[in-house]
Amino acid sequence: MSKAIELLQQLIKFDSSDKTVANETIDFCKQWLANEGLTSKIVTNNGFNMLICEVGQGDKTLVLNGHVDVVSGKATQFDPVIEDSKLYGRGSADMKAGVAAIMLAISELNQLDLKHTQVQLQLVTDEEVGGGNCANYLTNEGYLGDFVICPEPTQIDIGFQAKGILQIDIELSGSSAHGSRPWEGVNAIAKAFEVYNQLLTLPFASESTEFYDGPSINLAKIHGGEVYNKVPDACTLSFDIRYLPTQNKEQILKEIENITDGEIHINLEGPPVMNDKDEPYIQQLINTIKQHTNKDEVKLFGQHGFADTRYFSRFNVPAVEFGPSGNHWHGDGEYVEVESVDNYKDIIVAFAQNM
């Protein structure tokens, strides 16, 4: 069993869906790195711990940003199992395999001549709940680099774009009346259905790009009505909109405002990730992947969800999702392909050496 897989098994045993345990996982990683002869520091923001470890010197910095937190899972999922060349467990794919690999990579890189490159390992504890306390904080504090790799599971391909996120609540008002005489009132729920149908036909909803058929529009919640015999005078629609990297949040809100007299409240917003596929570091990463795999073609794709890459992208730092092969992350059968973990680590080491 490889050193990376042994480390991965240890990481999976931490139920880091809990913030306290996630912080304990950071402490474990710090000690593991110390045993490898590496010095690291822990940064804390709002009770969330982050680890920073740097090797090499130079005017170019490669950032390896991984998260040790996971979504909740069954107790058995924190007891890793290897079967048919797959390692099963919560976080095996998302993304403790990637974390184990980049920890091994920085240990190996510490023994190599990196020429004019510095490699900075960042481990964070809140990506699964939005990243507002960790990656957001680190990037605001200037931990940016020249190129960023987040080892999310990508099947050794590259997620080089990601949709933005806009979560909104639309509060609609009507006027109440007796349920037997609905024409005497204004039904707020009926208004809500009209708004929903119109929203799906707005200009932004029909746009597409080379990598996306369109934005994602999810009617996530609807709340309205109190009793059967009363026309509802209030209704709230809640939307989770993932908009294209080429789209503008303000324009989307303007289009929605034009179809409703309701009050719009923003619950959560986050910028998209927009990289150019011809960006030199991305092309270098593609070539490195080809050299270490049997891939004739490395797939560039756009993510529908978001990762901590978005916090770097807002500072115009190219940031990509690139990680080992696995499946069913966040699900009961989550696994990572064992062979891909060491393969991924070797790609990271080779890329850093020649960045």
From TrEMBL:
GO MF terms held by the record: acetylornithine deacetylase activity; metal ion binding
Protein's GO biological process: L-arginine biosynthetic process
Annotated InterPro entries: Bact_exopeptidase_dim_dom (IPR036264), Peptidase_M20 (IPR002933), Peptidase_M20_dimer (IPR011650), Peptidase_M20A (IPR050072)
Peptidase M20 dimerisation domain sequence ranges: 162-260
Entry keyword set: Hydrolase, Metal-binding
Descriptive protein name: M20/M25/M40 family metallo-hydrolase
